[in-house]
Description:
The complex is a heterotrimer of chains A (759), B (712) and C (139). Chain B is an alpha+beta fold and 712 residues long. Among the domains of chain B are: 501-622, Dna Ligase, domain 1 (2-Layer Sandwich), CATH 3.30.1490; 646-708, no CATH class. Chain B contains 18 helices and 35 strands. In chain B, helix 3 (70-77) crosses helix 10 (214-244) and helix 14 (424-449) crosses helix 15. Chain C has one domain (2-87, 98-110). Chain C is mainly β. Chain C has helices at 45-48, 102-110, and strands at 2-4, 9-12, 17-20, 26-29, 39-43, 70-75, 82-88, 98-100. In chain C, a hairpin with a 6-residue loop joins strand 6 and strand 7. Chain C is 9% helix and 26% strand. Classes of the chains: A alpha+beta (759), B alpha+beta (712), C mainly beta (139). Chains in contact: A-B, A-C, B-C. Strand 25 of chain A pairs antiparallel with strand 5 of chain C.
Amino acid sequence: MTHEQCTAELSPAEKKLMQEFLEEHQLFFGPDPEIMQNHRLEPRTAREDVAIGKVSDPHLLNQVRGRVQSGMAESFRMIEQMGSAPGAKWGDLVTAVFTASGDLSEASPIGMTTFAAVCQYPIKFINKYWTNEPSVGVREGDGFIHNDSRYGGVHNTDQSMMMPLFYDGELICWVSSTIHEGENGAIEPGGMPARAESKYDEGLKMSPLRIVEGYEIKRDILTFLQNSVRDPKLQYEDVKVKLFAVMRTMERLRSAIDEFGVDALIAFLRKNLEDTEAEVRRRLSEMPDGVVRFPSWADSTLREPALIKHNCEFHKKGDKGTWVVKGSSPQLSNRAINGVIASLKSFLLTGLIQQIWPDLPRNQAVFSSFDFVADYPSLLNSDTDATLSMSISSAFHYLIKPGQLLNKLVYSVPLEAKTRVTPVLAAQYNQPATFIYGGLTQHMEVTGNFCADINGAGQGARENQDGLHSLSGCFSFMSDTGEQELLEEELPMVRLVAQTLAKDRMGFGKYRGGAGYEQMMSSKGSAMWGFMTGQTGSSFSSCPGLFGGYSSSAYPICRVKDINVFDWLKESGNPAKFPFDIVELMNKQPIEGGTYTADDAGITFELTTEGEIYMICQGGGGGYGDVLERDPELVMQDLREDLISDEVAENLFKVVYDKAIRRVDVDATKMARDTERRARIARGTPYKEFVKTWNKPTPPEHIPYYGSWGDDGVIYAGAGPTRITMTSETMKPVFLPDPREQKIAAMQARIAELEAKVK
Amino acid sequence: MKRVSVDIGGTFTDCFVVWDDHYIETKALTTKHNLALGFNEALDSACGEIGIKRNELLSSVDSVRYATTLGTNALIQLKGPKIGLLATAGFRGVVPIGRGRSYGEGHSIEYQRNLPNASRPQPLVPIEMIRTVRERLDYAGEILLPIDEHDVRTQIRDLLDNGAEAIVVALTNSVVNPEHELAIQRIFLEDYPEHMLGAVPMLLSHQVAGRKGEYVRAMSTIMDAFLHKVMYFGMSALERNLRDSGYTKPMLVVHNSGGMAQLNSTDALQTVHSGPVSGVSAAEHLAKQAGLGNVVATDMGGTSYDIGLVVEGGEKFYDFLPVIEHRLVTVPMMHLVTLGSGGGSVASYDQMYKTVKCGPESAGSDPGPACYDRGGMKATVTDADLLLGYLDAENYANGHIKLNPKRSRQTIEDQLCDPLDVDLVDACKLIKSTVDADMANGVATELRAFGYEPADFTLLTYGGNGPLHACGIANKLGIDKILAPPFASVFSAAGAGNLNQMHIHEMSCYMVLFHSGTKTMFTDYASFNAKVEELERRGREDLLRQGMAPEDVRYRLELDMRYGNQRVQTTVTTELNRLNGLSDVAKLIAQFHRSYGDRFGEGSQSPAAGVRINTIRVCAYVELDAIRFKDIRPSLKTAPAPTPVGHRTCHFVGFDEPQETAIFDADALIHGTKIAGPAVVTTAHTTYLVEPRWHMEVAAQGAVWFMRDTAK
Amino acid sequence: MKVQITEYLRIDLDSERWECRCCGHEIGPARELYKEGLLVYHRDPREIHRPLLDPAKYAKTFAPDPEWCAILEYYCPGCGTLIEAEYTVPGHPPVRDLELDIDALKAQWAKRKEEKVHVAAGDTPRPVHRHGHGHGHSH
């Protein structure tokens, strides 16, 4: 009998007694669904009412805002300088300030919005559970650390430090700093294990806990954390870094209090949210009412191929917007790609700010203005038992949804309405394409982390120009792909191809997406080293175009194993034969004896020996508009820059030109394009006729499929005879068999079959 | 002392001549087609004041020093040769990608955040002019792939066939082992001896920058190659002009490192931003001589606000990865931060917060503020300053620009008063107070990021709009003392008069002073000392080549150190020039500990994670005679109170009622003059605004102090 | 009055019809899915993203797998402009990607002026290359 059934039969007095008993004898302070499901602003407190009553002059509040922002810019710079994690060096960090109730009011001007947006949840947890807990409490000089995304967070590789700011004994606000730390003692090095089958494989799982008292780090707790990870040095340094950055922000906030008064700060933190929410609603009301839909599919769990649906609709009416993700994949409990809904919301918020309204402040109110509907338990609204360590692989699909959906609503809004504030554009490449590494360095240090390539995704094409090559991660701006020389100095890795723009692999259209780049990675100088990746989209293009523009390519991981390229290069005659190009290396296979493979881009951690070659592509952005509208001169420019091949120029863009001098034959091109338009009309089928034969009642039988098909309320899971069908109401977590065991079973069956033959 | 120093800016050529006891500041319009003309005009007016001929003056001075914005202008106008780049095979995309973030370098946060509208700066090397050569070195300089000479020849020929007018070679890990870059140069010279091709220079990245980072080093070399020709021609023309006018000594060129060198020992890249850097050098010199303590040097013009930092004790602030015209490079450049706030900053209504926003948009000087009446339709800071009563509409910019207050009123009423629902004066006050707060926040962030408190600083203010906004900025910062320095109108030129001849050489290294894993300390003193000696040798040779005496050469050793694997760029200037034992290593670690704690907070240090040296840098310099400023302390002299030339009604932030304000002209500024605020002093180049509760005092050599009435 | 909804689609509020912005072709009722008035073609994704790796050697080639991924191309019956390229799973019903509340739209635009040209938002206008293809653009 469940708790609900049990209490249903009790009298009100008994219920109260029961409730008191439970509160007093709580077994475990797990993630609180009430906190985790609620992305709204906390109600205005009486204290905030008083403060706003005293200080309401918007110009004065604006001065407070300037001071707070200046303080955040300062602490952000501190972390960037002091931080030890690669993520900190490349800008994957943020500092933020929250209201006393825990709403994110202001994040540092640069850095990861997503991190800050999820930090409110652990703060609300601390407020709710630790403030009055006699064994804990919240006091001046306390610092709480946290990394378990079940309590709020993107994934467990990010660690946050949160401190309360007291003034005259009163809790005024919370301040935090968050860094993508990388290594966290998980089953695979680097902090983002794709092989994790349960949360117990994910490494360090800090619920919000006090690690700082009286502004001093407690060494016993720090030691416990160091003892739990592969890089105790990193853990030691960055706890300090985060602490001192938070303390610096607090210093600035205190001086703002000294200058403007404590009410001004409280009023600012609250009004900042209310003003933002009002502006978001104003912008929504300028957009047409209606429904826009954009489903996408991931093609792997990072362990096995599978089509995983990421459904998303946006309903807009008046000044209200609702995100609906029903019909998406069910929870895959023992795969690392699940996520909690709080994190999903922050990804949508990040996408909204990155693609539609970059001028909005980065705070909780941007998202509190929206409603949200999801199935439970589902892949991105999972229960607390699901594995989350590679949630970004799924969540990155939602980073581009705001662009794909809202662009169809904002395009028509007149500029004077100040709702369309930036060009409409196709999706930026949306997979974490990077190597996660681990092992022993040439300097005899144990480490595990990931490369800055994740920040090199190609931009989507825009309504007025091409997308930029390798611009940033689709989750941040001013991020940095780093310098190869500095990476090689610290880590036992050599990239024979570091950054070469990947030809023919961006999204084509009237404007083309920006290219991503190829890289070839090898290890050198280590006795123990290995790689993993977390990219999907090798069978199904991940990054869509807009308004007739095509997606960018599908990207596999290519490997040449059982060789040592460095030894091979030493043999005379070989250096001239090495192709610095993935396609050529794979097609020509010049290194004899090598095992050449091209697989799903997501691989779990595997050890490598010196000189084996691992190759991935940073993806390109989606295309915009009809390819036949592309200016033929831009096509020639792409040819000169070796971004596309003659095949693409001729067959897709239908440009006729002299190949030797790349001069466009204008008339012939016009003719070729007219011919193609006529050919399209000839080969196209009227919609109603087309769907009669096209639409199938269920997903293809042989494809492992997860999510809805036509009807969002019916969810499929699996392939073949074992496929199950559920409804929104009967959703259940799904467990997948271990692919290695399946492989062994298949091999054993084969052996038995062959043995039977021999007999 | 007899000395000429010049700052050739985009608009004006400033000239500062020291002729024994005379200090003369003159200005002429910059003559872009032939810089010598403007220079001669400025110099001639100085000669006129002294009463001698140009030839006589130039044959008597000890040196002529140039700071120039030639390079900056060439970058803005993208005037330069067609460059071909040779990179390591597999690195073709490095420059075009620019670490991803190259779209936003040097732009406002608003721009950086607006990814959908991002564009990268026009490339100095287009993608089709990039070739790669088959070669590869690892991080330690070991050859993984020997250089393919045939391939090199093919690629060079291809670049030349495509019209390359300069070739940049930037190979991966070439700073550790320059063998391959040198080989390419050798092959190039074999095939194309200089006399044959003369005009196509080849630049090697390891010779331009000594630090690791293939992108920033390539970018530095490209920029150097891009500027080489225009700098060479521009500066040579100036040098010839000097020769023709009787100057026989070498012409000295100011570097953005805060030092200077002869033209033939100057890389073009080193001259970019040398003007503003000279200003900070002048501030440094002034602070030392006048005992000013900590100084924050600020230059507020029409479109930007430059902030430089000078602290007591002589610690130098460099950027090792400065952004020059939106491009990230690696060259040790004096630290300078530029905010996009100036007189031309556009004030607009902030819809979200129902208040005023200043910038980042700027009306610049063309069309400029609405009151310029040149078609500018947007309200700017200068429009507000005019309506608040601070500016003299008839005598703005020495009478060059007549201001039209009607235009200002119209635009501010339309764009701000209506949506804000405030009257005109209140809107103007909001603009003034917002822009002052923005600049104050910029200064505060800057100082605090280095571990300093603004209240411990004197605000040094120059530039056309500086002294007008200084009190407002100081009010927000809690600063009590403001100094408009002597020779403020040619301050950068004056700064050039005080520089030492200096060269900086640096080298990336991986030296573990303390290894946290093995618990061992650094012992390879010989290798450390050898590196330092090598860097000293390079600097010494630079100076000897320019005729300096070996015994005059001084060295300053700086080390960039970090804990564990941080990115921190804490520079430790050490008195130790060599390491000779564990105690020296311990001293270094202790020194690092101190400076790190000062900056980030005591207790933030993490020596247990290991201590490393990443860069060794040697500044080799020869101390030269500096110009002596007179004692500019206030209250050394009293003068009779000046008579105002009139009164105006002015409005001030923080005062509800308008204030009857005395107006003075430049004649009032004699040594000893004291004027109580509120007051306005109009001079040829700027306006001094003494806000209520402040007073001003004129010190020696035209220096002007603003002091808060209540200050101790 | 006509409202420009996407790069290639507009709605005539008076006739309540979807129209092609390239040729003016009347696509269908604005209260229905615009796709219903278009021609559809199922494109093998390998025609757009041609296999770069040798398909004889590798299963993954940089081209999407046609068993997993299909492209539905929607053409204007009037001029053949490619209005949408939908990436989907073979057999999956086309997505109803854009459904507008026409009454609300009319109310909104009652207060607005018709826009004849579409201007991208942003602070730096860039030259737009326009090379007509003889179908009388009426953007």
